[in-house]
């Protein structure tokens, strides 16, 4: 009977368990999840359910058994907007960049609370984080309540991620402006409305990278618009990027508007390596550069059987090497005229390259 009374005693039983190894039963799932880096997402779900069931009053005991979870609870509170949990922490010596974390999560109320303490860890990158994620409400708040110096990167990242309303606000209500990267990266992401806005309202323009990157991501609508409204053009990288991504419609478009633009050998190499047979066939039929041995090597290494078979079938005319007679890239079975000495000979001698 005495033993039973001790086990039921709220004062005595905790003193006994101090000498026992382990954690309370309700904390066991948290202990298991927190020990595995691959289960951090599950850990936050478990912690959320645990807090609903037990509330903040049991947190001191949680920290006693699992002290490493104190940081996790803090981050969880910031990410989920639970200010009542934040009030249980002394943030004066906190090394975490909580403002930036709250901004990234779109938690304006947490941002307000932290700045009112005042706590400013992470404020330096807060505006950029808000702009890159399209959190216009936070961009407006920071503009109205902070005087931190910003850079052109803010509008650049907003444009890159297609956040038109953020770009519009930054253009009208802030002075930092942007760089040509804004339109380049907006084009790369396929964000036509952002590209149009920047072209109409800004003077930075874009570079050739805009079309090069858009081609690599298969954004044909961007290419059409830029080709009509801008004059920067593109580099041979556009064809290579499009071929690498298997964007046959873009490859055809580039070839139609610039049929002799750039060297397409590398384009066929990367298309073959990535298994894009349709692109390889198109370049074979419409361009004369062929490919190098890297095309066949890459296709074999990546198991693209259909591409390997095609390249082997047309190897003599497709695969190029450096000619030992003239020094130029030539098909495997070509016949090259070489001058044997400084004195011209008649007739000139034909010489098959030896590899």
From TrEMBL:
SMART domains linked: ANK
Q: Which domain of life is it from?
A: Eukaryota
Which InterPro entries does this entry report, sorted A to Z?
Ankyrin_rpt, Ankyrin_rpt-contain_sf, SecEffector_AnkRepeat
Q: Pfam families annotated for this entry?
A: Ank_2, Ank_4
Coiled coil segments of this chain: none
* Name of the protein: Uncharacterized protein
């Amino acid at each position: 009977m005495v033993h039973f009374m001790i086990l039921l005693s709220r004062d005595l039983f905790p003193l006994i368990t101090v000498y026992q190894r382990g954690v309370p039963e309700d904390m066991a799932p948290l202990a298991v999840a927190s020990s595995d880096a691959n289960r951090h997402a599950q850990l936050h779900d478990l912690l959320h359910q645990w807090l609903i069931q037990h509330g903040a009053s049991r947190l001191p005991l949680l920290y006693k058994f699992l002290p490493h979870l104190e940081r996790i609870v803090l981050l969880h509170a910031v990410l989920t907007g639970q200010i009542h949990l934040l009030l249980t922490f002394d943030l004066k010596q906190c090394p975490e960049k909580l403002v930036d974390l709250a901004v990234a999560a779109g938690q304006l109320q947490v941002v307000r609370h932290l700045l009112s303490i005042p706590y400013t860890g992470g404020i330096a990158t807060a505006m950029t984080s808000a702009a890159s994620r399209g959190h216009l409400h936070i961009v407006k708040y920071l503009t109205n309540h902070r005087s931190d110096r910003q850079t052109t990167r803010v509008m650049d990242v907003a444009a890159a991620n297609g956040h038109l309303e953020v770009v519009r606000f930054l253009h009208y209500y802030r002075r930092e402006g942007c760089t040509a990267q804004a339109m380049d990266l907006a084009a790369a992401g396929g964000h036509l409305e952002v590209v149009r806005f920047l072209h109409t309202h800004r003077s930075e323009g874009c570079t050739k990278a805009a079309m090069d990157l858009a081609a690599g991501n298969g954004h044909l609508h961007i290419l059409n618009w830029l080709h009509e409204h801008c004059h920067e053009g593109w580099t041979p990288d556009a064809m290579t990027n499009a071929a690498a991504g298997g964007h046959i419609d873009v490859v055809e478009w580039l070839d139609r508007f610039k049929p002799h633009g750039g060297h397409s050998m590398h384009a066929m190499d990367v298309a073959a390596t990535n298994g894009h047979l349709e692109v390889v066939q198109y370049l074979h039929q419409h361009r004369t550069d062929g490919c190098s041995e890297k095309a066949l090597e890459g296709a074999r290494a990546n198991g693209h059987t259909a591409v390997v078979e095609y390249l082997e079938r047309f190897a003599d005319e497709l695969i190029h090497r450096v000619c030992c007679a003239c020094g130029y890239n030539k098909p495997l079975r070509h016949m090259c005229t070489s001058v044997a000495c400084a004195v011209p000979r008649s007739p000139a001698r034909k010489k098959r390259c030896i590899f």
